[in-house]
Specification:
Elements: H1 3-20, E1 24-26, E2 39-41, E3 46-48, H2 56-71, H3 78-95, H4 102-121, H5 132-136, E4 147-152, E5 155-165, H6 168-171, E6 175-180, E7 186-190, E8 194-195, H7 198-219, H8 223-232, H9 243-257
Parallel strand pairs: 1-3
Antiparallel strand pairs: 2-3, 4-5, 4-8, 5-6, 6-7
Helix pairs in contact: 1-2, 2-3, 3-4, 7-9, 8-9
The structure holds zinc ion (2 copies).
């Protein structure tokens, strides 16, 4: 492939999809509101104020807006419509053979999480899991020899090298064997736990941990739940210690009793 072809790749893909989905691009002059952000008008199949550039960021932003046109339904809540539009964009990228950097997934996930929090604050309930990582990473996207950062039960952002693919029938799509470059040893990892940058691995770990803590805190509704909680979770089991459970427990102890537990017990 010549350099020229790869250089214009994004613009070509954008042109094709605008034609294929019959999209009316607008610089904002047809718009009655004065939003600055890129946005879509579903019925008119119009995308306003999109910043066209020969980059994956620009292409993904366009796909996301077309995703709204294709997937947003009137009864969807904000977080849900953002999720479905983004999943559409991810799938379209896969179809077009475009690699999506983790930073893009991260950025859109943050936005969805923000809308989800806002929805819940307003009393919204019954949301399904709106996790882009699970959808974005279903397709195999790493090669043997790639250096990656892996999250596991006992490690966060461990620098590893992909050594082989695992049997996808047994382990699902996107399962790999990795060899640790920090410690010795090899282990299996799912693509949901493999990241191309250390930052992304840490951000994903943090998000997961916050989810766990929120879930645990919701389990503890009263003093009785609080007293039973340590019996049902591993507080002191070496590598099996559930630090998220400990964090949730400490927070609830304070909320329900006003007692501040020793700071450094179990970390
Ligand atoms: Zn508009
Ligand atoms: Zn959107």
């Amino acid at each position: 492939m010549s350099k020229f072809v790869s250089h214009t790749k994004y613009l070509d893909v954008q042109d094709d999809i605008i034609k294929q989905y019959n999209i009316d691009l607008c610089d904002g002059s047809k718009c009655v509101n004065d939003w600055h952000r890129t946005h879509a008008h579903i019925k008119e199949r119009r995308v306003c104020k999109w910043n066209c550039a020969n980059s994956i960021q620009s292409t993904f932003a366009l796909f996301h807006e077309i995703g709204h046109i294709e997937t947003t339904k009137p009864k969807m809540r904000r977080a849900e419509s953002e999720y479905h539009a983004t999943v559409w964009a991810i799938e379209k990228c896969e179809e077009c053979g475009l690699q999506i950097p983790d930073t893009i997934i991260n950025q859109y996930q943050k936005y969805i999480d923000m809308e989800l929090e806002r929805g819940k604050r307003r009393g919204g309930t019954g949301y399904k899991e709106l996790n882009l990582w699970r959808r974005a990473k279903m397709k195999n996207s790493y090669k043997i020899g790639d250096v990656v950062y892996v999250n596991g039960p006992w490690n966060v952002a461990e620098k590893c090298e992909i050594t082989s693919e695992r049997d996808s029938k047994k382990n699902g799509d996107g399962a790999y064997y990795v060899h640790s470059l920090e410690l010795s040893g090899s282990f299996g990892a799912s693509i949901n736990n493999i990241f191309s940058t250390k930052e992304d691995a840490i951000a994903a770990h943090k998000r997961k941990s916050e989810e766990n803590i929120a879930k645990y805190k919701a389990e503890i509704k009263n003093l009785n739940d609080l007293l039973e909680f340590p019996l049902n979770h591993c507080f002191c089991g070496e590598e099996y210690t559930d630090y998220d459970a400990i964090q949730a427990y400490k927070t609830k102890v304070f909320e329900l009793t006003g007692i501040v537990l020793e700071k450094d017990q179990n970390g």
